[in-house]
């Protein structure tokens, strides 16, 4: 099945799950007609609830779903559609208050309907969820704490929305409509059960063992891991996995890292090269050899596959990790096509894989262009940051004939994508991987 067909199928499935509950409410027995704004408000509320429930599916890491776009695109869509759903949920009561001002009069506490309490809890939870997601760094919330609270708030928000809907029950006169929403609820809870129970059970039976902990330049540590009691999995160069080091697969939080090893390893061995950036990553250098770990993977569509006369890899900082997997795999395969790596770093002594890249030049038609933001006084190479001018100086024309891969800090990737557009490179010729899943 082609990329376009797969994408169209999953978009249709998503729209079906979002819209069918709303359309079903308009079938069968209908309650007395109300004014337009009241009905419109109810439609927004039902749609927002359906989208919120389906969010459990977007983060369930089904490979069949993520394959056409890549895990990073799915997570970015998850964030954007979450904001849209929250907007629908908030606008719903605002319209109701505008149309029926008497709802603003607070009744006695014992007289407050269960549906109203559930609605308040649901709205409060989604607002807190969004605030913590958007401003996690500014609020200095540890990633693990945020992840646990994110899941809890999502469950509370959806549960509150369902109780509000059932408590009001205006459109649920027909038994089959109630069964439909009950079925959806079971489906949403089933997705959560799959992610938190079923998948960890499979991972528990397929552990990995750390066989080497190698220190690299640039405060980066490479974990070499081999499958224990199973053959491991095959991955494509550029893909990544979710790593659990401390604890079992049932631990709430896993961390995504690219594979830096060749995809051609026959023994199932995988390597992840992780830069110390605080929180979880600061403990990676202390991982002992022999430690049992768990890897959920592979994921991602950021991989060499399309035919091209030249591969152009553009990396910033630790974004070089998936590029190393691509370069090592091409070298092991004896690929004769030229490869250009444009590699932005801060300082010469902090360039991760510097010596490895020099050694790989003997096995591959590889050209490495280092761009230093803070070069030494005797530096004669590229200075500053990766830009369209740097690309012009080091890439042959026609620029649109090459295949481009971009990975690094968000600001750098935005600049490179703009530079490629300036050089006339079509969107289909370059691929970006963004690992900010929060």
Structural overview:
32% of the residues are buried. This protein has 438 residues and is α/β, with parallel strands linked by helices. Helix 2 packs antiparallel against helix 4 (71-99), helix 2 runs parallel beside helix 8 and helix 5 runs antiparallel to helix 7. It is built from twelve helices and twelve strands. The chain is 46% helix and 16% strand.
List strands and helices in order, with pairings.
Layout: H1 3-25, H2 36-58, H3 63-66, H4 71-99, H5 114-134, H6 136-139, H7 143-168, H8 175-204, E1 208-216, E2 220-227, E3 240-244, E4 255-258, E5 270-275, E6 292-299, E7 311-316, H9 320-333, E8 339-345, H10 354-360, E9 366-372, E10 382-383, H11 388-394, E11 403-407, H12 410-422, E12 430-433
Parallel strand pairs: 7-8, 7-11, 8-9, 9-10, 11-12
Antiparallel strand pairs: 1-2, 1-6, 2-5, 3-4, 3-6
Helix pairs in contact: 1-2, 2-4, 2-7, 2-8, 4-5, 5-7
